[in-house]
Amino acid sequence: MKVGGARFVFCLSLLPLIFLLPVMASDHAHLSVDVSRGGAKIDRNLFGQFAENLGHGLYEGIWVGADSSIPNTRGIRNDVVTALRALRVPNVRWPGGCFGDEYHWRNGIGPAGQRPATINAAWGDVVDTNSFGTHEFMDFIEQIGSHAYVSVNVGSGTPREAADWLEYMTAAQPTALAKERAANGHPAPYDVGFLGIGNESWGCGGNMSADYYLSQLKIYSHFVRNDNPGQQGANHMLKIAVGPGVPRTEWTETIMKEWQGHDWSRNIDGLSLHWYTVPKGWPPSTPSTGFGMEDYARSLKSTLFMDEFLRQQETVMDKYDPQKKVALVVDEWGAWYAPLPGTNPHFLVQQNSLRDALLASLNLNIFARHADRVRMANIAQMVNVLQSMILTDKEKMVLTPTYYVYKMYVPFQDATFLPVAFDAGTYQQGTVNLPRLDALAARDSSGKLWLEITNLDPEKLVDIDAEISGEKIRSVKAETLTASAVDSVNTFSVPGTVVPRPISAKIEGARLALTVAPKSVTVIALEP
Ligand code: AHR
How far is the CA of 303 from the centre of ligand 1 (A)? Predict the structure, then answer.
């Protein structure tokens, strides 16, 4: 492949001292997309999100209450809903996280004034008014046009409590719980697309051993049912078991070995996995803003471990499930940095920079390359928490660089993966070695081709020469997300620093030519 050496443009002075000044450096890279060999579907659920009851993620970030002066629809912020609709969020996981195994759903239904105040011990002993409960979550899901991924309480709840919740949400028959739902304002059953059976049951979800969790899983997966008549058969709710949070395989072995012998009375459709990018290990100490090149490179290096983690789990899953019936569900992932100074450390508040945009694109590309097994993922989290899409401060809202990556990737939802061959080259920062480029290609259902190129090098442009073999391309459009520094951010007062901008790209026959900026995410639309 043709990744050449650096090309420098020199400024020569005629003075006795000759200055050699590198004005701009660039490399070349050749890519080739094979349109004849379509791979797995890049499931739209890979672009799912996580909205835990944590810090200002729900309260203030999504829910302000109907009496708020912040424009809202039935208590849910209009600005946030409009922004999220544009992302076509396929599913939202709620209410936790660690919060989920402390959540008792009955506290969050009924007339708002009569709901009990409870303590949220998972994240900072906050008093929860329970104003945002089941009906408010479902209203939010409907307003943004998404699907519910409800995570039930296995740690401190009971199978009966979880089964009742599901009946309350989904029963169409005139049962007492369905009537109670109707009396609370929703006669029609809700759709619950995904059911999480516990959360991190090896840790905050109950400190269980794999065997103990397995015994719970068998009970919950049998008794916690979806009664919605529209969600039976092929359209059934997918049940997702807790999986590993460390790169070891014992937990997955235990669950998958038992799954192999399952019968009609117990089944799972997915096994979850949690993996955060914590560049210097726990507790998170890397700053989310104002960091240097070493932190930049380390963060990206550390995020690339996701690929190996997935492979390791897939090897075990393939052994017990060669037909890949059980999906691997990465339902918590993202960058976890030091809390922003001055914020409550339990609220997991961090800024979101251009680095996070690149980190998001690397992970989304990894998921797409594993799309035959990895069919769902949820970035942590949606608003105001960890690597969020959106930050709010009272009536103000700002869209993060990560938000724009999700927006640029919308065309990849449910598109067919196409193999793309390229020489990634290398970018070295101190002792950290990284590939310079990453790329993803796909064809959407209308036949349009999409190519994504991430350039991790913070200094060098890369001239791309791409060959789209076997396809006649009529037109091309490209847009890039970049900024002047790897730690550039969008703020409430300057929200347009890291936003996608159109760039020029040329197509001649089957050859595409464009230059990608240093530290950038570029998405190219190719119309046959
Ligand atoms: O996303 C924050 C927390 O990280 C979740 O509550 C928990 O599941 C994980 O450890």
Answer: 17
- What is the DSSP-derived secondary structure letter of residue 41? B
pLDDT tens-digit series, residues 138-157: 999 999 999 999 999 999 99
**Ligand 1 pocket test, candidate residues 49, 50, 52, 382, most atoms within 8 A of CB:** 52
| DSSP β-bridge partners for residue 289 | none
| Residue 254's pLDDT band (cuts 50, 70, 90) | very high
First-residue to last-residue Cα distance in the chain: 26
What is the C-alpha to C-alpha distance for residues 159 and 29, in angstroms, rounded to an integer? 55
Nearest-angstrom CA–CA distance, 286 and 340: 10
Which of 242, 332, 336 is the best mutation target for the ligand 1 pocket, counting ligand atoms within 8 Å of the beta carbon and taking the most? Answer: 332
Instruction: Report angle CA 103, 159, 138 to the nearest 5 degrees.
Output: 50
Residue of minimum CA distance from atom 8 in ligand 1: 97
Its pTM stands at 0.94
b/e map of 460-491 (b: 16 or more CB within 10 Å)? bbbebebbbeebebeebebbbbbbebbbbbbe
Active site residue 200: yes
| 395 flagged as catalytic | no
